[in-house]
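The instructor's notes for this session suggest beginning with a concrete chain rather than abstract definitions. Hand out the sequence below and ask the class to guess, before any prediction is shown, which regions might be ordered.
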Amino acid sequence: MGYITEDKRKVTTQRLREMKQRGEKIAMLTAYDYTMAKMVDGAGIDVILVGDSASNVMAGNQTTLPITLDQMIYHAKSVVRGVQRALVVVDMPFGTYQINDSEAVTNAIKIMKVSHADALKLEGGEEILPQVRHLIEIGIPVMGHLGLTPQSINKFGTYAVRAKEEAEAEKLISDAHKLEEAGCFSITLEKIPAKLAERVAKEVSIPIIGIGAGGGVDGQVLVCADMLGMNNEFSPRFLRRYANLFETITDAVGRYVEDVKNSDFPNEKEQY
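After discussion, reveal the predicted structure:
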């Protein structure tokens, strides 16, 4: 049956800090719709990320860049309706916060007011500190995101591991401290060396959530469709598949098609 918590209290940013303080790992997954969010929440997940990875998973885009603010709000509203316990964090999509802090605030307020989500996630370090500070000043909780930042994929030109070189590693550490000082309640570290991620987790007091960042951090996040095996074309080293739903669903649909074609469905018990 897996881990289903008896603690039904709403997860908050403060509770995440408390989890880090007592050494309790934080479990985080993505979700983009009501049905999946309800299942994930009911299974005991601590944090649900309405990721801009919806651009890939739900819309079939090659990158996260095309997804719009209104599309993210649609997915966030759908997820929030299915959640009772988990903290719901929403990615601010590319182009909605990078221009200036005024536009970032306007778009952030729209996401929070319309979706009723609990917090937002922004990619970047020192470059976006004014926006991060402004959002936190007006009462919006912010999760940072460092390392491989998919919204910058055109600058990187590759999804390879980040911060392997000393200069980039030192900047990442500096950015993590600056995000903490700005008031971020947590930071996601994506696809960086495990030792570097562990160092960051030890140096800052806020929870560090890793994806492809080793086990020395405070929690883990995966894309739900990946860990459930719905996407059979994506197999990075950090991914552990807990199911093979691609095969299960394809087989089920195939059997349904066969039964319809053979007039085996519906049978006499399946009609009025």
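Then share the key points. Strands lie at 26-30, 47-50, 87-91, 119-123, 142-147, 186-190, 208-211, 219-222. The chain has a mean pLDDT of 96.
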